[in-house]
Amino acid sequence: MSLSILEKSAIRKRVTPISIQGYHELFRLGYIPEKTELIEGVIVEKMPKDPIHAGLVQRLSLFFIHSVSKEYHVRQENPLQLNDSEPEPDLAIVDKEENDYLYSHPNSAHLVVEVANSSLNYDREKLSMYAKALISEVWIINLITMEVEVYTTPSNSKYQSFVIYKKEDSFSTKVISGSLFSLGNFIRNNSK
Fold first, then answer.
1. What pLDDT digit, counting tens, does each position of 59-75 carry?
2. How far is CA 55 from CA 50, 184, 191, in A?
3. Residue 56: is it exposed, middle or buried by C-beta count within 10 angstroms (0-12/13-18/19+)?
4. Residue 4 within a domain
5. What pLDDT, in 10s, does the model give residues 77-91?
6. Separation of alpha carbons 60 and 88, rounded Å
7. Is residue 134 part of a domain?
8. In a domain, 19, yes or no
9. Is the distance from CB of 152 to CB of 130 less than 8 angstroms?
10. Residue 176, domain extent
11. What is the domain count for the chain?
């Protein structure tokens, strides 16, 4: 099995990253397809979504819209502008802004949620980018094991705290005051 050229460390070190402005301009000119995101200066094609991924993101979006404080805004699969990256997490809870982000993307979030099936390793790789941006809490909902990986306390490009919650476990988050979250409430019997 041969490695792709970008998997070779000698080549990867010589790749020239693209800026967020360059990414936007290339997209505007039609050189970049729509289903991409900019991760640490590299344009990455987004993975397709299977029904459980799409359905769970929709359910979670509705849950957060009804559960978070009015001072927050729930963004579903929309960009965050972080340093040299413009990821599009499945969900992000950001500060409410007067213009509702019509003219710029948020540059931070209180909570990022990535729902992961085939993208599990990729979503875990993105953790350092979120930690560098000081996003205080990231969830990776692992659809393979039906667990929620919760990462908190970003420092030095890593999260200092990491907890795994099983499907039936309940836990709280700062962005949902007075409520507990349980993955089992969103994924019923006919799931994995």
1. 999 999 998 888 899 99
2. 9, 14, 11
3. buried
4. no
5. 999 999 899 999 999
6. 16
7. yes
8. no
9. no
10. 48-185
11. 1
- Residues 24 and 30: their CA atoms lie apart, in Å, by 10
Q: And the tokens for 68?
A: 């978070």
CB-neighbour burial class of residue 9 (10 A; exposed 0-12, middle 13-18, buried 19+) = exposed
Q: For tokens 């540059």, name the residue.
A: 107
Other CB atoms within 10 A of residue 135 CB: 25
Displacement of CA 116 from its chain's centroid (Å):
10
- Residue 11 within a domain: no
Q: Could you tell me the two tokens for 20?
A: 């967020």
Length of the chain equals 192
Are 185 and 165 a contacting pair, CB within 8 Å?
A: no
Structure tokens at 142: 């692992």
Give the pLDDT confidence score for residue 1 in this predicted structure: 35
| Cβ count within 10 A of residue 82 | 24
The model's pTM is: 0.88
The CATH number for 98's domain is 3.90.1570.10
Spatial separation of the C-alpha atoms in residues 147 and 117, rounded to whole Å: 11
